[in-house]
């Protein structure tokens, strides 16, 4: 079988390779969960008000019991479990949702090499798969578990339902988040480049839900500085939402609009180039980022083919990624001025 974490081929005796067992479960032998999805929903319903993890999708916290069994936690959970949502809307293909989040997170971690929350699939008692992620706000530092203070960008930029409206999470721009990173993260140069790559990843995997609350800063006890949190909540949302209105959850720019965007109505290389320059990413770094993106394309498809998605979802994932990469991102029109001037385009020899 393939490891429920990294998707590498392993002997069927274990569900996780040694590396994933160590990174995700601190070397504890993990068995299928001792409860099923119905019991999950019962626990979820009984504890809704007490759960500290927010969001729309149903999820509960888990932690290891004294005898190393993963079980629902009312407080201080170290893992977040997300099963197939309960809706019976067949058109939304929700059965693929856990594997979709898992493969999206693995592409972020293994192929884009982004700092990504530890994650895997896990079996319920009856064998049904759910998505599991390890909370990154708890970390062992010099043998002691410390809890970081986590602030998402809705809170950092002051966006609330009261001040804006119920869509407040979508009413800012990635440029505003980048400004926040520059302001609060002391090592902001690598954090900005990491953030930039995350925006490109979200664009390529068609994640229309990378909103303000899906970017956060962390601060550990006795530290003054903030760091960018690992990447989390990644999903090829277009697969489940057929008429998704936006290409990206937030606009790239607060006010600016490129010629290409004006003509095409979606972001292309010109937008990402201008955005990269706006974030002060040097041209040679931008060229490298885009060369890497061209080079890793086959690796993305290989990993998707090894994922736990249904065959239909694998095909849709690859088709959508290819479309975003080759028809949207790398699209340009001969007459556009930026083609001649662009170092990026020259660097890529498109
Ligand atoms: Zn593994």
Strand-helix topology:
Blueprint: H1 18-25, H2 37-46, E1 60-64, E2 70-72, E3 79-82, H3 97-111, E4 119-123, E5 129-134, E6 138-141, E7 144-147, E8 149-152, H4 153-156, H5 174-184, H6 188-204, E9 216-219, E10 227-228, H7 259-264, H8 269-278, H9 283-295, H10 297-305, H11 311-329, H12 337-341, H13 343-348
Antiparallel strand pairs: 1-2, 1-3, 3-5, 4-5, 6-7, 8-9, 9-10
The chain binds zinc ion (ZN).
Residues 3, 5-6, 8, 16-17, 19-20 line the site of zinc ion (ZN).
Can you describe this structure?
With 350 residues, this protein is of the alpha+beta class. The protein has two domains: 18-134, no CATH class; 146-348, Phosphatidylinositol 3-kinase Catalytic Subunit, Chain A, Domain 5, CATH 1.10.1070. Helices cover 38% and strands 12% of the residues. The protein is built from 13 helices and ten strands. The protein has helices at residues 18-25, 37-46, 97-111, 153-156, 174-184, 188-204, 259-264, 269-278, 283-295, 297-305, 311-329, 337-341, 343-348, and strands spanning 60-64, 70-72, 79-82, 119-123, 129-134, 138-141, 144-147, 149-152, 216-219, 227-228. The strands form three sheets. A five-stranded antiparallel beta sheet has the order 2-1-3-5-4, with helices on both faces. Strand 6 (138-141) and strand 7 (144-147) form a beta hairpin. Helix 5 packs antiparallel against helix 6. The radius of gyration is 21 Å and the shape is globular. The protein starts with 17 loop residues before the first helix and ends with a helix. Residues 51-55 and 334-350 have low confidence and may be disordered. It binds zinc ion. Zinc ion is lined by residues 3, 5-6, 8, 16-17, 19-20.
């Amino acid at each position: 079988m393939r490891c429920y974490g990294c998707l590498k081929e392993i002997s069927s005796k274990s569900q996780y390779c040694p590396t994933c067992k160590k990174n995700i479960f601190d070397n504890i032998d993990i068995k299928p969960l001792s409860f099923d999805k119905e019991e999950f929903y019962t626990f979820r319903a009984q504890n809704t008000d007490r759960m500290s993890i927010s969001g729309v999708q149903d999820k509960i916290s888990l932690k290891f019991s004294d005898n190393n069994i993963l079980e629902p936690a009312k407080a201080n959970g170290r893992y977040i479990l997300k099963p197939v949502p309960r809706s019976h809307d067949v058109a939304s293909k929700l059965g693929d949702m856990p594997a979709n989040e898992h493969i999206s997170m693995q592409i972020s971690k293994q192929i884009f090499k982004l700092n990504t929350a530890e994650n895997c699939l896990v079996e319920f008692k009856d064998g049904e798969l759910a998505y599991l992620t390890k909370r990154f706000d708890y970390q062992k530092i010099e043998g002691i578990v410390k809890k970081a203070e986590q602030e998402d960008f809705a809170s950092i930029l002051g966006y609330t339902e009261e001040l804006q409206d119920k869509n407040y999470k979508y009413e800012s721009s990635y440029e505003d988040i980048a400004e926040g990173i520059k302001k609060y993260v002391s090592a902001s140069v690598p954090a900005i480049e990491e953030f930039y790559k995350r925006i490109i990843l979200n664009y390529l995997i068609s994640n229309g839900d990378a909103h303000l609350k899906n970017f956060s800063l962390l601060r550990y006890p006795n530290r003054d500085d903030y760091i960018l949190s690992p990447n989390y909540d990644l999903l090829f949302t277009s697969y489940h939402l057929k008429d998704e209105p936006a290409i990206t959850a937030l606009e790239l720019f607060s006010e600016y609009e490129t010629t290409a965007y004006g003509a095409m109505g979606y972001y292309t290389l010109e937008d990402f180039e201008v955005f990269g320059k706006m974030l002060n990413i040097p041209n040679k770094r931008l060229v490298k980022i885009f060369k890497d993106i061209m080079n890793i394309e086959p690796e993305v498809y290989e990993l998707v083919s090894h994922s736990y998605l249904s065959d239909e979802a694998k095909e849709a994932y690859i088709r959508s990624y290819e479309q975003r990469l080759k028809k949207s991102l790398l699209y340009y029109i001969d007459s556009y001025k930026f083609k001649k001037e662009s170092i990026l385009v020259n660097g890529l020899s498109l």
